[in-house]
Amino acid sequence: xxxxxxxxxxxxxxxxxxSTGGLVIPxxxxxxxxxxxxxxxxxxxxxxxxxxxxxxxxxxxxxxEVELGGTDYVLLRERDVHGVHTVDDxxxxxxxxx
Length: 98
Known about the structure:
Elements: E1 5-10, E2 17-18, E3 24-25, E4 36-43, E5 55-58, E6 64-68, E7 71-77, E8 81-87, E9 94-97
Antiparallel strand pairs: 1-4, 1-7, 2-3, 4-5, 5-8, 6-7, 8-9
């Protein structure tokens, strides 16, 4: 990867979701635009806040898609990331940085 680019693998969206109240929301229900989570596969040399293996929150509308080896990936700039979820191997505590 070059400069401040990130190559991420988007998490698959479940066909049906369940609300906190227990209601099942079908995949065909249109709702507001949502941000999506993805796992970082590769990072450019100038990326400062995100590392390989982190989960990032991004806007699915602002993305460039690429297929490598039969797997779909998304190419992002570091500035397009809205949040980072990292897991520290030392104490297994997760941190969310928005």
